[in-house]
Amino acid sequence: MDYRRTYIRDILQTTPPAEVSAYGWVKTRRDSKGIHFVQISDGSCFTDLQVVIEDGVMPEETLKKITIGACARFDGTLVESPAAGQSVELKASGVQIYGEADPSEYPMQKKRASFEFLREHAHFRTRGNTFGAVFRMRDKLSWAIHKFFEERNFLYVHTPIITTSDCEGAGEMFGVTTLDMQNLPTQNGGVDYEKDFFGKPAFLTVSGQLGVEAFTLAFTNCYTFGPTFRAENSNTPRHLAEFWMIEPEMAFCDIEGNMNLAEEMLKYLIRFLLDECEDDLRFFNKWIEPAVIETLEHVAASEFARISYGEAIELLKKSGESFEFPVYWGADLQTEHERFLTEKELKKPVIIIDWPKEIKPFYMRVNDDDKTVRGMDVLVPRIGEIIGGSQREERLNVLTQRIKECDLDEKDYRWYLDLRKFGSAPHSGFGLGLERMMMYVTGMKNIRDVIPFYRVPGSAEF
Question: What's this model's pTM, rounded to 2 decimal places?
Fold first, then answer.
């Protein structure tokens, strides 16, 4: 066996007649008089390959092993198919069963299963249509992200997963320790972290931003793309404890350039998926979100609106809408507000800038009014916020003051302040959550269904 085997995706593009071997997992089997129809998939494309087995070609004992869930290689001749909905089929002359599957126990039956049920069987759910399409698109999206930045000469940086700095200042971080929880060393009434592996409290990172900023002030344009963690006790369809973030950072770039890159990237990624994932998107458009293709085409063709936070508040106040969450200066916008702006008021994607500094992290550049910061949120129809970013505070004295205002320990950010002390430069960046983007481009309604194995409060299975 060789990794260079022919994928079903390529077999389906082969001109018959041709002798081929098809590897995959059995999705369905239907028996008719004197003939057996088997659908197999190897995950390489949305369309299955139909294998036709005539009576007498294989021993009866072998036929019995070709059940839903079984893994096999079918050898035979690729021929034109007389059936509607498929151009070719494999007329089998032989089979090798690699792994049997007892149909009475195999959880992935032909009947439709709920997403809740499939989450309990996440190790098998990728064999079905929905999650096969989800993770093919996740693969293409990840590739497109790297392609986008490579074409623009960004340096790819692997930032640390373990950190001692809280980038967001919210304190919702997972602690990392080798101490014995049943016998903690103490000192002066508290935990003696000098006995811990790193000699100080350490955490899983909530963002790679601070690290990539350091590289940006040497390489100009950089990005990181990796896992991040939030110990936020939110059990909602939009929250995960572990998720992946794309975080570009640019030196000599203000908020205007930051908005330009964010808009350019979203359009690029969406267009890439529309071009490369046509079959999978048609499935989502039919079965998951009827407007998903139309929405993506609209965003890819739109010129994003750009308004200030103050302007957004005024539009919401004048809307006449009965919002669940009240609208006032200083309020963080909720999904209902964001969707109103993008779907009813402006009818296209919106970038909101100049936010109250009290509701944004310490690293955002303070405006001259000392009330707002150069933060930006990119909102899109159907889900609201999809990107958050800002021009970073490059002034040492202002950044030091903001760290104090946010009750953070200045010692933890010594190196971050050093970047402003020695050769500071204006710079900007943003973050895009891969799973949030996946929900948007597929129409999937729960973020747990666009990541291979989800981590949420009370659940870390698989």
Answer: 0.94
